[in-house]
Design goal:
mainly beta, 719 residues, Jelly Rolls, 51 strands, 6-stranded antiparallel β-sheet, binds beta-D-fructofuranose
């Protein structure tokens, strides 16, 4: 009996012991530097000031990544100051010391050291030694079990002057475990998607997907440590049936994000796809993540291809990848998934695409013509491409853009200068060669030629615009005998001029194109069939909402024409006629004469509109339309159309102002006087504010014609 009790007791005790030893001991805080002074710590010299800094110090780059309100920052007095900060002795009772560190990387001179018997036995430094870099603090740790139960001290050293001659540190804790570590997981690919949780502003983590030692994907993600803001996805289709490894480093011990990554047949949150409150309903936006520039706009066999600068894994810019969508009518888009992923030469920046009709590159395999894309490798923008520069490369598709192969001889154009980028390809028929216009930094564009898209010869260079060049020819007033070459950059500002296949000669100064606040980096479609003949442009629509799982959109496609005006030939922009396929209820209003008053347009609903308005100027000083809370006003005296803080010169046409307005959840695109003025505006539409109102102030105006079409969504339910 006694024996039984003893055995039982022993068993219970053993169980208690086992559970206890499996459970980590509580952390022991050493110092969090939240007080105004250093307390028992001893500061020598001036660099550490009289106490912990409240974040960034004067003339310092933004310091972040520390915990609480204060940290140790030896930038008091700038990089020139030096000093030492030493802790009182304390006993080591856990096998790890964790802490946050940033700043200079000059060995012991900018370091945090562990002293045992007064001598450094462990040291850590910040990451930076050269101009540039970042002041962000990151977790690091020391394994210190050999000094268990011994008295030790911490010491911070700033003996360095000049670049990165300072050290930042915070939040020292003794612990049973490292706070950050490398993590791996085996992924047996059985489902279509890998869903990943994102929390905006969570610390960014590098994540890799590997097959054996082969790196397949690498990206940076604000991995949600707990409850995510939204989920992003990675399409696993190309890896079906394989066993891959998911890897990440610097994952905090209490970060649940890495484990939460899951395989699934569906995109998490997909039930509300395209029905989210602030989802543009007839503008393209990506299912998930960020978009900026449209890329590779090309038409082939009944499909308009829209590639775009995509961050598939976050709400902000990053991880530049070419997203891809197609449309048969420029209105309804189908997102096909990412076409070009970052690799060891860099992330994939902007570029263009063409149909290689004559198989000049030799990529064609069957009857299907090859689509060739030219893009920029932004070297050194991911870990994979460390030390690489910005170069130009090509990729091709033999299956109507469904899959893409990067050319094995990439890059096709080596690094020239700085961030040289954004190759725009065109076929120059008279010279029978390809032309690439390339942004060369400092507002310069370079012109290169090739007969096979693989080897390029430099022809000329001109002072012109910033980023994202575009070059094409347009007839003046539909007269195919008089043609002009248009060259423009990302802002849309353009030249009219001549181009002989090698050199561009502008007619005069740069001309303004758009007057809005949400237009950038536009491109026009290549290979539109001659029987259509339109020059169709899509621009990045710079508008978004922080609560959405996506950010930014594309502006509605516009047709560009060159028309004679009193000032010479000018570009006009007009929404493509295909928008009519979304027209629903039509509201035609009788002539309205307004004298210093406003009138609400009744019975209109939905917040998605295509509006055509003509108003004859009477004596009104200001007249216009209020669209979902956004006033669009013509100022008669100034001869200006104004919206938000944007202004465009505008003259009444035979005494009247003509407006065409496209209204969606995140934007109002304004076209005045047949497209002479193009003013795309970012405007967040609230559910409570979908009304329309016309007004005249300080006199009279007559709204002689006013038609509102309510628009259907371009997205199908359940998509
Ligand atoms: C324009 C731009 C391009 C570059 C791309 C990167 O918005 O800066 O010059 O290729 O975005 O996303």
């Amino acid at each position: 009996m006694r024996n039984t009790i003893a055995i039982l007791l022993f068993g219970v005790l053993a169980a208690v012991l086992v559970t206890h030893s499996a459970k980590a001991n509580p952390d022991i805080p050493i110092e969090d530097f939240e007080k105004v002074d250093y307390g028992d710590w001893e500061a020598e010299g001036t660099a550490f000031g009289s106490g912990p800094a409240e974040g960034t110090l004067p003339d310092q780059m933004r310091v972040d990544g520390f915990r609480g309100k204060r940290l140790v920052n030896s930038y008091f007095g700038g990089d020139g100051a030096t000093g030492v900060l030493t802790s009182p002795p304390f006993k080591l009772e856990r096998p790890y010391i964790n802490f946050l560190i940033g700043g200079g990387g000059h060995g012991l001179n900018t370091s945090v050291a562990l002293l045992y018997e007064g001598k450094p036995v462990r040291i850590a430094t910040g990451p930076n030694t050269e101009p540039g870099g970042r002041e962000t603090l990151k977790w690091t740790h020391w394994e210190v079990s050999e000094f268990m139960d011994k008295e030790v001290q911490l010491q911070m050293n700033d003996q360095q002057t000049g670049t990165w001659g300072h050290i930042n540190a915070d939040h020292f804790v003794q612990s049973d475990q490292p706070y950050v570590s490398e993590k791996t997981r085996a992924i047996e690919v059985q489902h279509r998607y890998l869903n990943l949780p994102v929390k905006n502003d969570a610390p960014k983590k590098w994540v890799r997907l590997l097959e054996g030692d082969t790196l397949l994907r690498e990206f940076e993600i604000e991995l949600a440590p707990g409850e995510p803001d939204f989920w992003v996805f990675l399409d696993l289709t190309p890896f079906m049936g394989k066993t891959l490894t998911l890897w990440a480093d610097e994952i905090e011990h209490d970060n649940k994000g890495f484990e939460a990554i899951e395989q699934a047949e569906e995109i998490r949150g997909g039930e509300t796809m395209y029905r989210e409150q602030y989802r543009p309903q007839f503008h393209f936006s990506s299912k998930r993540g960020w978009n900026n520039d449209p890329n590779g706009l090309v038409y082939y066999k009944g499909e308009y291809h829209l590639f775009y600068q995509h961050n598939p894994y976050g709400w902000n810019w990053g991880n530049m990848t070419w997203g891809h969508a197609v449309s048969k009518d420029l209105v309804h888009w189908e997102e096909l998934g990412d076409a070009l992923h970052p690799d060891g030469l860099g992330t994939i920046f902007s570029g263009s695409a063409v149909v290689d009709e004559q198989n000049t590159a030799g990529f064609q395999q069957g009857d299907e013509k090859t689509l060739v894309a030219a893009y920029t490798y932004a070297g050194d923008t991911n870990r994979w491409s460390e030390g690489q520069k910005f170069t130009q490369a090509i990729a091709f598709s033999n299956d109507r853009g469904r899959t893409w192969t990067k050319y094995e001889g990439n890059p096709v154009l080596g690094h020239i200068v700085g961030g040289n980028r954004d190759p725009k390809l065109i076929w120059h028929e008279p010279s029978k060669h390809w032309v690439m216009v390339l942004y060369l930094d400092e507002h310069r564009m370079g012109i290169f030629t090739s007969t096979d898209l693989k080897s390029w010869e430099r022809q000329s260079e001109l002072e012109s615009f910033y980023e994202c060049p575009e070059l094409f020819q347009l007839p003046v007033d539909d007269n195919s005998d008089t043609r002009k070459w248009i060259l423009y950059g990302a802002s849309g500002e353009y030249f009219t001029g001549e181009f002989d296949g090698r050199t561009y000669t502008p007619d005069g100064d740069a001309l303004p194109f758009n007057y809005g606040n949400c237009f950038y980096a536009s491109q026009t479609f290549s290979d539109i069939p001659p029987e259509d003949g339109r020059r169709i442009q899509i621009a990045w629509g710079r508008t978004g909402h922080p609560d959405m799982p996506f950010n930014q959109m594309m502006n509605f496609p516009v047709e560009l024409t060159l028309r004679t005006t009193e000032s010479g030939p000018r570009l006009f922009a007009w929404p493509v006629h295909e928008i009519a396929s979304l027209h629903q209820k039509e509201h035609v209003f009788p002539v309205m004469e307004l004298a210093d008053t406003s009138r609400t347009l009744e019975n209109i609903a939905g917040g998605l509109y295509d509006i055509t308005a003509v108003f004859e100027m009477g004596s009104a000083e200001e007249s216009g339309i209020m669209v979902c809370g956004l006033p669009i006003t013509f100022y008669a005296k100034a001869g200006e159309l104004r919206c938000g803080d944007k202004t465009a010169p505008l003259k009444p046409d035979s005494g009247a102002i003509h407006l065409r307005l496209l209204v969606d959840r995140l934007s109002v695109e304004i076209f005045a006087n047949e497209g002479r003025v193009y003013m795309p505006m970012s405007h967040i539409q609230e559910e409570t504010d979908t009304g329309l109102e016309v007004f005249a102030k300080g006199g009279t105006a007559t709204f002689s014609s006013l038609t509102v079409h309510e628009l259907a969504s371009a997205w199908k339910t359940g998509e």
